[in-house]
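[Automated response] Your request has been received and processed.

Submitted sequence:
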Amino acid sequence: MIDTHTHLFLEQFDLDRHENILRAKEAGVQKLLLPNIDHTTTEAMMKMASDYPAMCVPMMGLHPSSVNKQFENELKHVESMLQKHGHAFCAIGEIGLDYYWDTSFKEQQKEAVKIQFEWALEYNLPVVLHARESFDDLFQLVESYLNRGLRGIFHCFTGSPQQAERIISYKTFLMGIGGVVTFKNGGLDKTLAAISPEHIVLETDSPFLSPSPYRGKRNESSYLPIIAKKIAEIQTCDQKELIRQTTKNAIKIFQGIS
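Generated structure:
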């Protein structure tokens, strides 16, 4: 399995990061993909990738929640990291639009996304997209770049069947499915029942969004089999086949991580 989205470099893991990685390996996780947040997280992320080069692969991007009046300075940091270490990154991420907490910087978030889309195309990297209360605007941005070859993942997808079908229609985007799929009233089961494993990848988003029965506690990559098991149940397919297909999907979109 590949955990396509884990923030294992955050301080929540400072006391037992190595043990987390060992548990992930024991659970069958072969790769951990690390999405950046902003300049405050880059050093820890890069150190983790350096300490565990066979398992951890970093991304570079600016999270929408870190977009504010000084977002140009944050983007300069992203650009500098791409110029220095572009070959080391598997994606431009985590980027996107988040209107849940604050809508004061909507236009700045959109501008940051467009700039980072250009870098994704320049460096031939996929994008890992964060969408919260913002699907319509993000769809419009993505669709304006599809004819130029933009590809990527809608991370932590929790949308409707109609939104899933729209993403599938792009042909170059997948949906990242995590712990929310195990939530009793999450509603994601209805969406996933209508699509096939060819359109998804597995993720934890740890330390956030732990799957049941660990909901409310710190998430970790060793919980990925719980997510795979639930998806296989919903899609009435063999769990091993689901894992094989989602791993194949991840390797294809994150070129060179295998």
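Summary generated for your ticket: The domain at 2-13+20-253 is CATH 3.20.20.140 (TIM Barrel). The chain has one domain: 2-13+20-253.
If you did not submit this request, please reply to this message.
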